[in-house]
Design goal:
Blueprint lengths: L23 H17 L5 E4 L4 E2 L8 E2 L3 E5 L9 E2 H4 L5 E5 L5 H15 L3 E5 L10 E7 L2 E4 L8 E3 L4 E6 L2 E6 L9 H82 L8
Parallel strand pairs: 2-5, 6-7
Antiparallel strand pairs: 1-4, 2-3, 4-6, 7-8, 8-9, 10-11, 11-12
């Protein structure tokens, strides 16, 4: 009788017990980057996460890495506890690391080599405090022999081809800008606040326009009333002129009648001349 060994299911841990980030600032930037990207791809089949274990070798729970932020296009955006490459069918398209002096070796050596080896097409490093990375924003794109440095354009921006974004620094802060529209990408909360401000501005503009229209209407009505009063005054003046003319004509007729009457009286009072014999 053959006794089969029991199948032992491998356990892939969800946490290593380490803190989420080295400082509040690094944690905030990690969360912000994830939030911006999640809002950009909201409703699309794009999985965006960070600080979760990514397992890249089936059967070996030791082979894992925990990116600060990762983007995987073409798969459901459902929540996951861990990410297994062989189950998802692909590695992330882009990874972002919020780096610092204490994590430089992990970010610039171990992860740098690992991400290139497993085929992550673009890798970006951001040092929010500029502790060691010079410049504080750097990017790499996968080539035939590993990562190749992404050179900034004339406006000192890095191009993320996978996400169709420009990455740039504004006073040291990382900014994502859509390459097609030029719009700065916001977190969901920022987008809601911006829309609320836009609507409030639109309401204020509409109220100002309404009040201006009402003022213009009142001005037009006043002008119409003034025009009506002037017309009535002119009509009254014309009536007075016509009345005066009719009175003058009546006086002239009366005077003519009186003259005719006087002439008739004079004619009667004047004796006719006698004829000579």
């Amino acid at each position: 009788m053959t006794v089969q060994n029991p199948v032992v299911e491998l356990y892939y841990p969800e946490s290593d017990g380490q803190p989420m980030a080295e400082t509040d600032l690094h944690r905030d930037w990690m969360v912000r980057i994830i939030d911006i990207l999640q809002h950009r791809y909201e409703g699309e089949p794009v999985y965006i996460s960070g600080n979760l274990f990514l397992y890249y070798h089936d059967g070996d729970p030791q082979r894992s890495v925990s990116p600060d932020a990762l983007v995987v296009k073409g798969i459901p955006a459902d929540r996951r506890r861990i990410y297994k490459v062989w189950e998802e069918g692909k590695v992330p398209d882009v990874v972002f690391e919020t780096t610092s002096d204490s994590t430089r070796r992990n970010d610039t050596v171990r992860k740098f080599e690992l991400y290139a080896r497993i085929g992550i097409r673009e890798y970006f490093l951001y040092d929010p405090t500029a502790d060691y990375l010079n410049p504080p924003l750097q990017g790499y794109r996968l080539g035939t022999n590993g990562y190749v440095r992404i050179e900034p354009d004339t406006e000192r921006r890095l191009t993320c081809e996978e996400l169709d974004l420009f990455l740039e620094l504004h006073d040291g802060a990382l900014v994502f800008r859509d390459r097609q529209t030029g719009r700065i990408q916001l977190t969901r909360a920022e987008a809601i606040a911006e829309e609320r401000d836009r609507q409030a501005t639109a309401r204020r503009t509409a109220e100002v326009a309404r009040r201006a229209a009402e003022a213009a209407q009142r001005s037009a009505e006043a002008a119409q009333r003034s025009a009506d009063a002037a017309r009535l005054t002119a009509e009254a003046e014309l009536e007075r002129e016509l009345a005066a003319r009719r009175a003058a004509e009546a006086n002239a007729v009366q005077m003519a009648a009186e003259i005719a009457a006087l002439r008739a009286q004079l004619a009667k009072a004047t004796p006719e001349p006698r004829a000579e014999s």
